[in-house]
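Render this sequence as a predicted structure.
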Amino acid sequence: MNPYTELKKEYASSESEDIFRQKRNSESLKALKENPELHPDPILKDVLENGPQADTRHNLGIVSRPPKSICQFIERLQSIILSSISSPDALFPIPESWLHLTALEICHTKPADEVERLAKLVTPALSKAIEIADSGLTLYKPMVSFDQRAIALSFISKPPTSQTSYREALFNVVQDNTPPEVSPSSRYSAPSAHITMIRFIDNLAPTQVQALTSTIESINKEIAESPIEWVFKPGTSHCHYGRTWYGNGTVIIP
């Protein structure tokens, strides 16, 4: 069953997508005020200290890379956020080459040999899937979203195409053109179009967490009317597998 079919009914408009992310940010802010403790990423810290082989999680999915204008926008926001606290080393700004939006997660946290096998099975569906991924979607109205694990730049979809319809089509083309054992399985199903731009690799004092959330709230007021958009075009998306959690991996050529 395609999880995005039901999701599409609930989030049929950009307004409903925005309500979802605003509510999620409010809940995250409340949680951090009640318990100002972050959840640092121990695997990322290990990767930074010992290399990519420290991450044993293998995944397979279709991702979209942001254009230069979005990358520059993110770089500016990263700089503002890191300079707002006295312990910036606790935060890891995602480098430009890692920045990505997950369009469709096909499998995650699997052994390497299983992911390689599934990658071969999914290849026949990729030409059509990439064609869908690279057309018909425009994201706009950027907002900084956050929780106890990371900070992201989120968008909502610009009418007439909703991101849930877009993901529903991607899911269907992969499922309909591959063997039954290939069934896209995402870690979460939500109307979330986001690019993770900062991950936490160490904890912060409560006063620093407060400074961080205050800065994010200030940024969101500043960019509320930002005209920046992300129009998906040919060459935006690709399918990759392997150690892809942070945006790398091996690209599959259809």
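Summary. The mean pLDDT is 93. The two ends are 25 Å apart (CA to CA).
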